[in-house]
């Protein structure tokens, strides 16, 4: 059992320890080795001392080694995987002491050596990490202690290396449930809340990513709960940051054009409160500790919901884009986020079209035709759906065009596959939009451009999608010419 019901909480001062690569003990005895080497060098050059003096020097060296072990600097490394396709987040924390006891450090050193490229024995490393967890429990370490949860993450990582998928997911879900339970029950000290929110978001995002490979979305609601909790924390501590002066919605295209400090400053002065203006104008902006992980979680959730709940996806994606634009940081690629926003509007358009089809079918039913009040009501609904469909398709078109205008030139001289993919897919999507609008001239133009880009970037799947739409277009044009 990885976790107990202990309620003791501590300050979150360190993360998963990882040994530096090398052939020596890798928990971080660099200081003691350097000191020892220096003393040994001096000792070799003091041969003229008498034997008694040499013995005293050796005792002094041993004493200094013991002292250095207590005061050495340790590199702490946390490696987790987040994002839609997975990326590494490595956080470096330097501590002026070894965070683990000798009994725990011993199996950790062996584990990190076993997983290094010196051995590549992940099964052996797994056993040592499990042994380290057992030692932690014997010492009475709190399950909420970041040292303990850090080792748990290493256990999950070893299961991943060993391709033991079910066990990896099991470890992550138990860890996330444990952390979230502590958070919602108020069992985490104030100074440790944000770091625990960060770790919980990272772990649950990873769970949803792993399961989604097999279209298993059972933990998607759990991710939503984590996101809501993190948002409530932001509203509690930083609620002033994103509130407009008049509580109105921000214009998405105004946000998309926040490309330099001058435009951001103008936007902040125009739309945000004085308190927010003061915050964003600081030389060093300290955003919520877990903000980047929340952005990644919202991006994943929005992507999974994009066809079923496009309105929700639009809200999440617009929030992410606003955060990234104002903070001038990109924990995820901004171009992909904007493309997802355009796609969400396109799905919103399709949902409105489905509603239009249902309303039209209903209006043909005999019992409806005989009820004038019902007909009047349905006509009003139909008009609203048609307006919403038109507006959604227009927004999708304009956002895709903004992507092409912003990124096409950069993609021509860049080897960034994300950038190239965004441009090629945006051109293809514009072709699809013009196909829906029966603007076949623009449809042909953008599909040709998309195909050229996709071939240049060796995107075979995109070329196939384009060719399928071109085939449909040619068939449609042939039918119209023959009619």
UniProtKB/TrEMBL annotation:
Coiled coil: 349-388
One GO molecular-function entry: misfolded protein binding
Keywords: Coiled coil, Membrane, Transmembrane, Transmembrane helix
Classification via InterPro entries: Mrg3-like (IPR040201), TPR-like_helical_dom_sf (IPR011990)
Membrane-spanning segments: 73-94
SUPFAM superfamilies: TPR-like (SSF48452)
UniProt-recorded name of the protein: Uncharacterized protein
Organism: [Candida] arabinofermentans NRRL YB-2248
Native organism taxonomy: Eukaryota, Fungi, Dikarya, Ascomycota, Saccharomycotina
